[in-house]
């Protein structure tokens, strides 16, 4: 990822996912008195994050590039010309959304799987 537009897109989406993940972690820790419920809730919340990322990826190419955080992160010298900017920023954002959606889906499977195991054990 040596491309500055890609770097900015991954930073932007990664930061948002980090804050969302922090929220999920707080909810899961708050429900730690009931481990199966905590895992099931973590699975549901991470699935919601995954779905939001997939929807955002679907519409990333249509989002006006000047209204994205990615564009604001880029230094003036790293910003592409207006003719290319929409395609480059949109594609970089789509790739970043899909990358983090894939990670969120793995987390969803881990939470859901642990919920099933905990329920089967009666914990």
Structural class based on helices, strands and sheet pairing: mainly alpha
Spans of at least 5 consecutive residues whose pLDDT stays below 50 are none
> Which percent band covers the strand fraction?
under 5%
Q: Summarize the biggest pleated sheet.
A: none
Helix/strand layout:
Layout: H1 4-30, H2 35-58, H3 69-73, H4 82-121
Helix pairs in contact: 1-2, 1-4, 2-4
Architecture overview:
- The chain has 123 residues and is an all-alpha fold.
- The protein has one domain.
- It contains four helices and no strands.
- The chain has helices spanning 4-30, 35-58, 69-73, 82-121.
- Helix 1 packs antiparallel against helix 2.
- The longest helix has 40 residues, at 82-121.
- It is elongated, with a radius of gyration of 18 Å.
- The N and C termini lie far apart (44 Å).
- The relative contact order is 0.19.
Q: Would you summarize the structure shown here?
A:
With 123 residues, the protein is an all-alpha fold. The chain contains four helices and no strands.
Spell out the key features of this protein:
123 residues; mainly alpha; 0% strand
